[in-house]
Fold this sequence. Notes:
By secondary structure, the protein is of the alpha/beta class. It has helices at 39-52, 83-90, 100-113, 142-146, 156-169, 173-180, 182-185, 243-251, 255-264, 267-272, 278-286, 290-313, 324-329, 331-338, 350-355, 379-395; strands at residues 2-8, 13-21, 24-33, 62-67, 78-80, 119-122, 197-202, 208-213, 216-220, 319-323, 361-362, 371-374.
Amino acid sequence: MKILVANLGSTSLKYRLFEFAVGQERMLARGGFERVTDYGAAIDQCLAELVRGGALQSEQELAAVGFKTIMARGINGCVRLDAAVLAAMEAFNEIAPAHNPPYVNGVRRFAQRMPQTPLVGLFETAFYQWAPEAAGRYAVPEAWYQAGVRRWGFHGASHKFVAERSAELLGRADVAERVRQLYVDGGRRAVAAPELRVVSCHLGGSSSVTGIRNGVAVGNSLGMSPQSGLPHNNRVGDLDAFALPYLMRTTGLGLAEAERLMCAESGLKGLSGLSNDIRDLVSQAASGHTGAQVALDVLVHQTRHWIGAYFLELNGVDAVVFTAGIGENQVGVRAAICRDLDRLGIQLDPEVNATVRAQEAVISPANAPVKVMVIPTNEELVVAREVRRYLEQAKR
């Protein structure tokens, strides 16, 4: 079974092709295109590359195309992306303006190009379906909650991958199997004592922290929209609910411009006044740029805040995991986040930490009570696995 996973951005198309056989999974090809102005042409080129490279004999070999979809009104989990689901995604366009519109557009172009091929989405909110209700509620009227004003949580595919892989590395095959079966049995699969408690830090262009108990999420720092939680590369993160109406009333700022500023000119870019690229910020902070240092300090502060929240919620942790572009590569950011946490059992081995970039490793001392780990994420593999499961269940 061959499954193509397409990652769609507002001007990009990245893809990975996976093959599944009995007891075997492997990635056959990967690639992508930037500055996409015509999704139809990009899809044609993607399929042509896969055939020309020998990964596919023809597009008819594809069992499905999978998508890391973000959110939809009233829909969650892994589902066929039919007209009703796309309409439900469009209903949340204003909540996820940088994500939902390009996905809806791209999926429709795939449907036009490949009408007989199943198109299946794994929603980023899916991993939080079994979190405690209190973790998903804002203190708002019930009617607001029913309209979708709640903490949804995102980066589900990444945090699910970390939940499974960290369990494997910590010798908890029972918990890893629970994660693998999570979307089948909703976390009802029993695991042995003691509890396995993990905090997963997905730090990248978009960032979030998740608490995980025995492979099941207890919450996520992202809330109703992907603009919430930690500061992102150019998206605002958490903001007091009265800040926006205050600015609109006192400065004359219009709603459309306020949305643009929160989605494109805030986050690390807004804090630094310089760049949304963490590499630029690290370099400039080392040269004395005050704004760059402030941006790094706020990211570190907010990450520590959420690690602390889940440390308390989980009654301690067995592992803290760093993943995604910043988490996997930025040695100094990891060190700053873990600084002076030894009384919580969280320590780094500075020499090991300094050598680890984009590779799986334990970066805490061997005798540390809490394992600090780097686990490169593989969201596309999670999507492909769940799409495969969806197809197999649909045949039954």
